[in-house]
Specification:
homodimer, mainly alpha, 6 helices, about 60% helix, elongated, DNA-binding
DNA sequence: TCTACAGTCTACAGTGACTGTAGAGGCAAG
DNA sequence: CTTGCCTCTACAGTCACTGTAGACTGTAGA
């Protein structure tokens, strides 16, 4: 029950010290108590909170979504449909991204397979990059991060 | 054969004006001629170059890789194994990312399926986010952008 | 010729989610 | 007391752009 420093919290939750301070700066983690010398002091609830954030990030939720989830969590008698909507949204994002990446994989594989070595000037990879005709990019959907 | 302004080049290659200037600033596009009043003037080769860059980006190649490819392109008598290595590397990235995303999709799907509505306090999605025990994130592999 | 209005210019700030660095001070073990 | 790690703040850097402000240019119609 004794408070821990940021380093201990970092180990307990598996989140880097700098990242914890960053989460504080953007308001995902509240401002902790301080020791006389100004060091941050956390209780066990901070481990819980930080793990929640980390797991959300590991699942690709943007910090804004996590912020919303935390707000919802603070009002546990509410209906959970908002939570479901956020998760569903994230699932759609992941699926969209998967689709893009599968197309990329196909195209890259194709490019590499059709290259038979030799000089750069006759390299199929290069010509594929030059010739924009039969490719994914046609969709004009930029490949974005998750 | 008459030179075009940046706006025309933008339309011809499907790349935003600001992005073209950005590519110039990082040296992916060379510095073009200018009109008397200082406007950029491009020839048809610029469309070619820009399309090459765009297609590479669409395939997820980082700009540094594209820079290398352009250098290799300028020396067409070289062996193309370096080109192949860059493409192969990118394919590995894509595959790694696909693996992560498939795991994410599974976990999100599972979370959402197990939620049966009701209050936030008993929401399975929330408890899944709180309980870190049986998840992907165990791998401690951060989900990174492509 | 005048007037809109679209296009272009530079320079810089902002995005997301952190990471890295510098320079100073804190704390516990040997 | 010294060694060595920990923590502090504040700010710059990452990637690949996007957005904004404020000024200038070029062109088409009245």
């Amino acid at each position: 029950m004794k408070p821990m420093t940021i380093g201990r919290l970092s180990k307990a939750a598996g989140v880097k010290v700098t990242t914890i301070r960053y989460y504080e700066s953007i308001g995902l983690m509240g401002e902790p108590d301080r020791s006389d010398s100004g060091q941050r002091l956390y209780g066990d609830d901070a481990v819980q909170r930080l793990s929640f954030i980390r797991h959300g990030r590991d699942l690709g939720f943007p910090t804004e979504a996590i912020r919303e989830l935390i707000t919802l969590q603070s009002d546990p008698s509410e209906d959970c449909s908002a939570v479901e909507a956020i998760a569903e949204d994230q699932l759609q994002n992941v699926r969209k991204r998967l689709k893009q990446l599968r197309a990329l994989e196909r195209e890259l594989k194709h490019m590499i397979m059709s290259c038979e070595g030799g000089k750069v000037c006759e390299c199929r990879i290069m010509s594929a990059l030059n010739d924009h005709s039969d490719c994914i990019a046609q969709t004009h959907e930029r490949v974005t991060a998750l």
